[in-house]
């Protein structure tokens, strides 16, 4: 009985050690156990994540700065134009480095020409401002679509490794032998989805913020053209 109790106690200790080891398994260990192929894909996904975060924060602060427009700006422009102070209106636009102000400045520089020409000039300037606001934003959309596919590529590589190990095992399947392939398959898939989700959310948030500024630019342009149409 003593021998059986000692054996049971030893088995319990081994089981507790095994459970403890499983609980302390870290992300770093998962990546390192995934083999060279998995490590390369994880590294690539990490680079894409850094690029996505950099683009998001750089564009976020740029768009945030561009969205801050003085509420009295159009009233001051209207007063200057109605009083014939065209130069003062241009100076006011130049001192306000915002997309809407640059559109109005372009329109002011065309005062005296047909209204259609002024409208065309403002539209062309607006396209340029939108291009500036959306700079590098399409890269986020590319990362959002490419990251999960890269993760799935790691899944395929991991399954190929696992199948190769099974084929070379001679019928003796050992789960430990398959761990490298399974780790590669699972970790790369999770990493790809995480990067893709972050990039997708960041892209849509920037699109919403950009569209808001575009609507404000259109509103200011229409207000300026209505000002030119007012009877003197």
From TrEMBL:
* Keywords, in A-Z order: Cell membrane, Membrane, Protein transport, Transmembrane, Transmembrane helix, Transport
Please classify the protein's predominant subcellular localization into one broad category. Answer: membrane
Task: Domain (MotA/TolQ/ExbB proton channel): give its ranges.
Answer: 98-218
Domain of life here? Bacteria
Tell me where it resides.
Cell membrane; Membrane
TM spans, by residue?
36-57, 137-163, 183-203
Topology with respect to the bilayer: Multi-pass membrane protein
Quote the Pfam families the UniProt record gives. MotA_ExbB
Say yes or no: keyword Metal-binding present: no
Coiled-coil ranges from the UniProt annotation: none
- The answer to whether UniProt assigns keyword DNA repair to this entry is no
PANTHER family per UniProt = PROTEIN TOLQ, TOLQ-RELATED
Report the family membership: Belongs to the exbB/tolQ family.
Q: What is this protein called?
A: MotA/TolQ/ExbB proton channel family protein
- Lineage of origin: Bacteria, Pseudomonadati, Bacteroidota, Flavobacteriia, Flavobacteriales
């Amino acid at each position: 009985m003593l021998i059986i109790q000692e054996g049971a106690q030893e088995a319990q200790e081994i089981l507790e050690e095994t459970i403890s080891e499983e609980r302390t398994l870290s992300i770093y260990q998962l990546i390192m156990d995934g083999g060279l192929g998995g490590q390369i894909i994880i590294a690539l996904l990490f680079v894409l994540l850094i690029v996505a975060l950099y683009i998001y924060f750089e564009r976020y602060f740029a768009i945030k700065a561009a969205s801050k427009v003085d509420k009295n700006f159009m009233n001051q422009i209207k007063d200057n134009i109605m009083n014939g102070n065209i130069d003062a209106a241009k100076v006011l636009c130049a001192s306000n480095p915002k997309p809407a102000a640059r559109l109005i400045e372009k329109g002011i520089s065309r005062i005296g020409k047909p209204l259609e020409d002024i409208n065309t000039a403002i539209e062309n300037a607006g396209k340029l401002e939108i291009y500036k606001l959306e700079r590098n934003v399409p890269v986020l959309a590319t990362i959002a679509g490419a990251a999960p596919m890269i993760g799935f590529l790691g899944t395929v590589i991991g399954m190929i490794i696992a199948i190769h190990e099974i084929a070379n095992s001679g019928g003796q399947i050992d789960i430990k032998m398959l761990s490298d392939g399974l780790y590669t398959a699972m970790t790369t898939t999770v990493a790809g989805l995480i990067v893709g989700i972050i990039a997708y959310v960041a892209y849509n948030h920037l699109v919403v913020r950009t569209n808001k500024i575009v609507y404000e630019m259109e509103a200011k342009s229409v207000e300026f053209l209505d000002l030119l149409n007012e009877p003197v």
